[in-house]
Specification:
There is one protein chain. The N and C termini lie far apart (81 Å). By secondary structure, the protein is of the alpha/beta class. α13 packs across α14 (361-376) and α22 (641-661) runs antiparallel to α23. The strands form seven sheets. Strands 5-6-8-7-11 form a five-stranded antiparallel β-sheet, with helices on both faces. The protein is 42% helix and 14% strand. The chain has four domains: 10-204, no CATH class; 212-312; 345-436 and 453-564 and 580-610, no CATH class; 697-756.
Length: 762
């Protein structure tokens, strides 16, 4: 890199993102700009597994700092402002302006700058960096404040990466994949350095203006208020008419935007869409992006509008619909397409099953994958990155609404196994009957009759820990829990509060080691090695209860061992006669199942041959492991850390199942990538589920509201555990439901009584 020696632009250089600062100095703007207007081309295919390694390389910082660790507290001053422009993860539909348009915006301000596209830039999803030299060095403490103000001036506030506005942030030199070199862009713009003092003064003036508003709405904005929760925002909006005049509607959107809530845009959009005659997607997007924090509109403005509007009393049914919209709004799930092609040898059958039965691809994929795991766990193990052989067992959880086809996929997926179990079960019953008859006829001088052997049953639809231990003690080494009504499992005896930890700890042990070891007073000892358990639980969201949000279950690693699929509700279907037998790929799947069922069932699965990763597959898994470690411990996946850290083993197990089902003995790199894709899809589903999608409290609150709605007189709170709906009788559920209803302003509490608000009772 060519560096000038003019003492006007401090710069620090690093070899890569993990390296310390190796060199510091100063450069002229000309020297800097000339070396940042061309891209280094990087060879290699860009995949989720290789992305981090390919884009990592020489980096720099616009900072006055000594060589050594890259830490915020070591930065003395900043010599340039850098903006990273890309779509926010929360609003992927709001893409930045095209590169050339942003260059024109910068030029119109008269600023000096260098703009260059970054590694993942595409024409459809622009990503680029703006480097602005400054009139004077500025304090690290004002980087974010200054950056956001410049972004607002350029109209880029919604697409500026705020995480990049940090004093110790490093920035890569311009790099691009060689395959996409034609898309790479860079431009130098001549002008004046950014006047830092003037920009900071503008921020101060704008803040001062908010203290002297010129209209009633702005006065209301200055009222002291606590930032709203998502539930409170929905409750407030439910009291306003989305068909109001444009100025009022715009102010509502800006007030919501001012909160900074992650859910604010979705909540405001849902409210706006209630007026179908006026709603326009592009108008909404433009208005939302036009919000300016210094414009005098805050959430206090919206509270003032609500106060003026009041909450009208509605007939009971309309009041219930309003409460439903507030408490359980339609979820705006992110588009996580199920990677059907990643199912490898199962992909064609899963695709036929999904299209033929008209069910979600994720449900079909999970069903076939879980069935394949049940069959392959008794013929092989898999060697994971830690070098130890692990079971090929998989635990799968699929959440889908009633009527979305759980039975329609489960029956074809398990058909061969069910038929085999029926045949073997009948034979076993005959052997047991003959054994009992021989015992009854046996004379004292004769030897004991030959025992019928282990029970052949592979499938069960419910469990208790005691029952499962007995099943493995008396039965074969490979079994499965498969249920299309998994509420019986997750809300049954095994998962009561008293039994939950015991059950899940036992299931975790089976998943890890396949070992049962139990000592009971008066009940003898159970010691069973080499057993294998796979599971597929299909359940309705309403039947989940609170098990998905139980921190203890995630903390001990129970849920992180599960592959989760939560597909969107099905669209209305058309009648289309279809039989699974008509699909050649599904018939081929059954044939392979029968071949695996015919294989010898070992007494212990611990000694089975281990499927291994070939060198390329191991390198691919190692890269994925490192990315999960980084993201789970210090990155964007810290909220689901346990799930991220378990993802690599899940990916290895999935790849092992696919390899074993296809008859292979080594995992190649393409199959490794399949395992990674499916593990990543599950991780994305867990992020959504634990981010509020699986929260049971809105359901409890709505149930309690519906019950209160049927009672015209106030109800004593202490009577709810005796007279109320069964789902909210436990004190903790009742209290959470009441708190949610209070936050939504749907109830009135006076003394020890409670009643619904805003209802016209006959």
């Amino acid at each position: 890199m060519h560096l000038g020696l003019d003492m006007d632009f401090a710069i620090a250089l690093l070899d890569n993102k993990r390296a310390p600062i190796r060199k510091v100095g100063t450069v002229s703007w000309d020297g800097f700009a000339s070396s940042f207007t061309h891209h280094e081309q990087v060879e290699g295919a860009v995949t989720p597994e290789t992305l981090d390694a390919l884009k990592d390389g020489p980096a720099w910082m616009p900072a006055d700092i000594e060589p050594g660790p890259r830490k915020r507290e070591r930065v003395r001053a900043m010599s340039a402002l850098v903006l990273d422009i890309e779509a926010a993860k929360a609003t992927p539909h709001l893409q930045p302006p095209p590169f050339d348009e942003t260059a024109q915006r910068v030029k119109a301000q008269g600023w000096q700058a260098v703009l260059h596209t970054t590694f993942q830039h595409t024409a459809k999803a622009p990503r680029y960096r703006i480097v602005l030299p400054v009139s004077s060095h500025f304090a690290p403490a004002v980087v974010k404040e200054l950056g956001l103000q410049v972004a607002r001036v350029l109209g880029l506030g919604a697409v500026t990466d705020m995480a990049a506005l940090e004093p110790a942030r490093l920035y890569y030199r311009p790099r691009c994949p060689a395959a996409h070199a034609a898309d790479a862009r860079a431009v130098r713009i001549d002008g004046q350095p950014l006047d830092v003092n003037a920009m900071l003064a503008h921020i101060t003036i704008a803040a001062a203006r908010q203290t002297a508003p010129s209209n009633e709405l702005a006065v209301a904005a200055l009222g002291v208020y606590e930032p709203p929760t998502a539930e409170e925002m929905r409750a407030d909006l439910a009291k306003l008419d989305p068909g109001m005049d444009y100025e009022g509607w715009r102010n509502v959107l800006w007030a919501c935007a001012s909160t900074g809530l992650d859910e604010a845009e979705d909540i405001a959009r849902d409210w706006s869409m209630q007026c179908e005659a006026k709603y326009d997607t592009h108008a909404f997007d433009r208005t939302w992006l036009s919000f300016k924090p210094d414009g005098g509109i805050t959430y206090g403005s919206l509270r003032h509008m609500v106060k003026q509007a009041g909450q009208p009393d509605l007939p009971p049914q309309a009041a219930l619909e309003r409460a439903t919209a507030i408490l359980k709004p339609t979820l705006q799930s992110k588009a996580h397409l199920y990677p059907m092609e990643a199912l490898g040898p199962l992909a064609e059958a899963a695709s036929d099953l999904a299209s033929g039965a008209q069910v979600a691809p994720a449900m079909a994929g999970q069903s076939l994958l879980a069935a394949a795991a049940l069959l392959t766990q008794s013929i092989a193990n898999v060697q994971t990155l830690d070098g130890w052989p692990k079971p090929l067992s998989l635990y799968c959880l699929t959440i889908a609404n009633s009527g979305d086809g759980k039975d329609a996929v489960d029956r074809p997926a398990l058909r061969a196994i069910q038929e085999h179990q029926r045949r073997e079960g009948q034979k076993y019953q005959l052997l047991c009957e003959a054994f009992e008859q021989d015992k009854a006829k046996r004379k004292k001088s004769e030897g004991a009759p030959l025992a019928p052997g282990p029970a052949p049953y592979r499938l069960a639809s419910d469990l208790t820990i005691e029952g499962m231990r007995r099943s493995f003690a008396e039965g074969i080494a490979s079994q499965g829990i498969f249920s299309t009504e998994a509420g019986a499992v997750l809300a049954g005896h095994a998962m009561t509060v008293e039994n939950r930890i015991k059950t899940t700890a036992s299931l975790c042990g089976l998943w890890d080691r396949g070992h049962l070891s139990v000592v009971r007073g008066g009940g003898g000892r159970t010691e069973r090695y080499g057993v294998r358990l796979s599971a597929h639980l299909l359940i309705q969201p309403a039947a989940l209860g609170d098990v998905l949000n139980d921190d203890a279950l995630s903390g001990i690693g129970f849920w992180p061992r599960f592959l989760l699929a939560w597909p969107a509700p099905l669209e209305p279907r058309k009648f289309k006669p279809w039989h699974a037998d008509s699909s050649a790929s599904i018939r081929a799947f059954w044939t392979r199942c029968e071949q695996l069922l015919a294989k010898h069932m070992p007494e212990s699965c611990d000694g089975l041959p281990a499927i291994t990763l070939d060198p390329a597959a191991q390198a691919c898994m190692a890269s994925f492991f490192e990315s999960m470690e980084q993201e789970g411990r210090k990155g964007n996946l810290q909220d689901v850390r346990a799930f991220a850290l378990r993802a690599t083993e899940l990916a290895c197990r999935i790849a092992g199942v696919l390899t074993a089902f296809a008859g292979g003995q080594r995992i190649d790199v393409s199959t490794a990538r399949c395992g990674i894709q499916l593990a990543q899809h599950s991780l994305s589903q867990w992020l959504e589920a634990l981010g509020g999608k699986a929260d049971p409290v809105p359901g409890w609150a709505l149930t309690l509201y519906r019950w209160l709605l049927d009672r015209h007189a106030p109800v004593r709170i202490k009577d709810i555990p005796h007279l109320g709906p069964s789902s909210v009788r436990p004190a903790n559920r009742r209290d959470q439901a009441i708190e949610r209803l209070k936050a939504a302003d749907l109830i009135h509490i006076e003394g020890d009584t409670i009643r619904v608000k805003g209802v016209q009772h006959a």
